[in-house]
From TrEMBL:
Cited InterPro entries: BrnA_antitoxin
Pfam families per the UniProt record, alphabetical: BrnA_antitoxin
Region (Disordered), start-end ranges: 1-44
Protein name in the entry: BrnA antitoxin family protein
Ranges of biased composition (kind: Basic and acidic residues): 25-41
Length: 82
């Protein structure tokens, strides 16, 4: 039988809930892993209910339809502010 060699420990959160974590895991002082840098103004995921015809028109334009939808909404906001 193989032993689990990871060192688990219990951590009590301020809410009183218990959480398991692995010792030697990524702490606050650990260096960031390589990857894409965080954006200052990152886009937010959203759940949106649209009419099927609207969604179909944007999807029919091919890859990048979400960006085009974002551009149309942004232009409408800028136009409305005038």
């Amino acid at each position: 039988m193989r032993r689990d060699r990871s060192a688990w420990r219990n951590i009590t959160l301020s809410s009183g809930a218990k959480k398991l974590s692995v010792e030697g895991g990524r702490g606050e002082d650990a260096p960031r892993r390589p990857g894409r840098p965080r954006l200052e103004n990152a886009k937010q995921p959203v759940s949106l209910r649209l009419e099927p015809e609207v969604l179909a028109k944007f999807k029919a334009t091919g890859p990048g339809w979400q960006k085009r939808m974002n551009d149309v909404l942004k232009a409408a906001i800028l136009d409305h502010e005038k």
